[in-house]
Amino acid sequence: MPRDTVSDATAEARLRHDLALAFRLAERFGFHEGICNHFSVRVPGEAERYLINPYGVHWSMLEAASLLMIDGDGRVLAGAGEVEDTARFIHVAGHRANPRHLAILHTHMPWATALTMLEAGHGTLAMAHQTACRFHTRLAYEPAFAGLAQDADEGERLARRAAECPEVDVTFLASHGVVVGGPSVALAFDDLYYLERACRQQLLAMQTGVPLAHLSDAVIDSTAAQFARDLEPMAERHFRALGEVLERWPDRALTF
Q: Options 3.40.225.10, 1.10.150.20, 3.40.50.300, 3.40.50.2300; which CATH number does 3-245 get?
C-alpha cells in the first residue's frame, strides 16, 4: 500500500477516534439535545469528504466506526445510517466557508443557547470575565432565525459570516444555538466547553440584577493574547485528559 494511502488511513482513524470521543464527552456534559445536533470533521485528501454522526444514534453510543463518511453533496460513502438534512446543509456549507475549520461542532447547549434567545443587544457574550476574553475577536452573531436549515440556501446563509470573517470560530445563531469551528477536534471541543462555561457565568451574574462589570479594552486585549499563545497545546492536553477519565471510569458522571 502506498505510503500516502497509509498516512491518509491513519489520519482518518485518528479523526474518527477524536470525533467519537467529542460526542461522548459532549453527552456527559449535557451539551446534546436528544438525538439532534451534529459534529463533523473534514477528512484529509484531494476529495471532499467529511465524517459526521448518523441520525438516530445517541451521542453516548457513538464510536469511531459509527461515524458516516459523506461527500460534498451529502451522499454516504461509508458507514450505516442517514445524515440529517440540517446536519448536511449546515456542515458542508460551514466547512467550505472556512477551510481553516477542520472540525465544526453544532449544539443547542443550554447556557449558550439561552443567550441566543435574548433581545437584540442583550444576547452577546460580555467581556466581563477572563474566560470570555478567550473568545475576544473570535465571535460572530447571526441575528435572524429563519426556521430549520432544511435546504442548501439556509445552510449557505448561516455560513455567510464564516466566509466573510475567517477569524471567527464561534457563531451564535439567534433563537437556535451555536456553531464552533476549529483546526482540530480537540481545540473545537475545548472552545465548546469553555464557551458554555462563559455563558453560564454571565447568565448567573445577570440573575443578580446588578450590571455586569466590563473589563477595559486593554485588559481584554492582553488577556485574549495570553489565551491565544497557549490555546492549542492546552486544548490538546485537556481533551486527552478528559478522554482518559472517560476510559478509566466509563460510568462516572463528569461535572461541568
A: 3.40.225.10
